[in-house]
Specification:
Strand order of the largest sheet: 1-5-4-3-2
Shape: globular
Distance between the termini: 25 Å
Structural class: alpha+beta
Oligomer: single chain
Mean pLDDT: 91
Radius of gyration: 13 Å
Largest sheet: 5 strands, mixed
Number of helices: 2
Strand content: 25-35%
């Protein structure tokens, strides 16, 4: 299982989600974690790079739901480390 951390802005953004949005995000993250284990991200997750921020990726978790993240240095040898940066609507991409 990958390790992860959240930036303060992500935590603030997460607290603003509705319970339904939070639920959908958690479901998507479960699939994301599974895909990280296999080394293949499914197309349905719509993971892509953020053009304005090299090394930062966006994950679509709902029609307008987005989360930005990046790979961080390994904390556990051989295990990917994810840094969650922002979560919310497409608007977060102006400051990913």
């Amino acid at each position: 299982m990958p390790t992860y951390q959240t930036l303060p802005r992500f935590t603030t953004d997460l607290e603003r989600l509705t319970p339904e949005q939070h639920h959908r995000f958690r479901q998507t993250v479960a699939a994301f974690v599974e895909d990280l284990r296999t080394g293949r991200l499914r197309a349905g997750l719509r993971v892509k790079g953020v053009r304005s921020a090299p090394g930062v990726f966006e994950l679509t978790w709902d029609g307008n739901g987005r989360a930005t993240w990046q790979y961080g240095p390994e904390i556990v040898q051989g295990v990917q480390h994810i840094i969650w940066r922002r979560i919310g609507t497409h608007d977060i991409l102006t400051r990913p």
